[in-house]
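job 3f2a | input accepted
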Amino acid sequence: MAELYGVPTKAMNQAVKRNARRFPVDFMFQLTVTPEEKPAKSKVKSKR
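job 3f2a | predicted structure (48 res):
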């Protein structure tokens, strides 16, 4: 939604939190990333 309205995600989340009573209960949801979906950390060490 934030991208659709051209605003940062953080700003959209704040606006929704401040105006939660204006939205239907089934309107809001938040996507989360599970540990399996997170990108693997690189284990490359720099040579100095």
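job 3f2a | The chain has one domain: 1-48.
job 3f2a | closed
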